[in-house]
Amino acid sequence: xxxxxxxxxxxxxxxxxxxxxxxxxxxxxxxxxxxxxxxxxxxxxxxxxxxxxxxxxxxxxxxxxxxxxxxxxxxxxxxxxxxxxxxxxxxxxxxxxxxxxxxxxxxxxxxxxxxxxxxxxxxxxxxxxxxxxxxxxxxxxxxxxxxxxxxxxxxxxxxxxxxxxxxxxxxxxxxxxxxxxxxxxxxxxxxxxxxxxxxxxxxxxxxxxxxxxxxxxxxxxxxxxxxxxxxxxxxxxxxxxxxxxxxxxxxxxxxxxxxxxxxxxxxxxxxxxxxxxxxxxxxxxxxxxxxxxxxxxxxxxxxxxxxxxxxxxxxxxxxxxxxxxxxxxxxxxxxxxxxx
Length: 340
Description:
Helix content is 27%, strand content 27%. With 340 residues, it is an alpha/beta fold. It has 2 domains: 5-121 and 304-338, Alpha-Beta Complex (Quinone Oxidoreductase, Chain A, domain 1), CATH 3.90.180; 135-280, 3-Layer(aba) Sandwich (Rossmann fold), CATH 3.40.50. Strands 3, 4, 5, 6, 7, 14 and 15 form a 7-stranded mixed beta sheet that branches. The longest helix is centred in the last third of the chain and has 15 residues, at 289-303.
């Protein structure tokens, strides 16, 4: 690979991942050239892309320049890259050179970016922690949308990385009890290590009874972060009168079959859609994305999520990484791609 080329990951169809070499232009005015050192695979969202389960008519992300366009193959995707600035364009301060930065950028060895689209890593922040920034920002947003109160009973369905980081933040609140649920033992143990009082097997036929034993009147606040529509039914069943269910999962084309005709109708249960691309309107007078990013960086420093990196694959072996997540998700927490 020459100095004017890069290698990029493309999804070409369900179960099809290829690595392609592309021409890389010089940075333009206001741009910098970043050499990627690490990028994280989003096991939830990227698995939908890998399996072809994304909505055909949905924009990838209207707020991120590098993720413009629609969900359609061939698709360059990914949104968590940490790299080093190796060249700067005109009107860019030379102090940007050699800085480590975070970007919402697809998986590729090099990329061009406007400086305003980059997040410089805080002093002392390791790339292995910084690569979790999108998931931590999502966890912060989920906690904000759920508004946990002192003494509340909280359940979190799903202990993937977003679920684990949400658990890490909730464990810092003076809750009466924090219970999590996941179908994989590795995730349940990580959840306990982060401060959950108990972590239950999501596929257990007695899960509802177990949750009732902990919270006879039902939980006050429940998060559905598993990515499974069936878990949303369980989440609604486990919440009490006037409780809140925060839905942070993206189901893609999967549909949720919900029973909303009985207890739900009479219990004043609130379903709250939470998505990190926006902030809750009631917070917008005091909070903006810059403030939320600042908080996410602080939480990364406190939680130290690099311990959740279970697998590293060179970019050229990315097909093995996605195959692992597709066929053996029980073996992985966070999978990252490395770059020469």
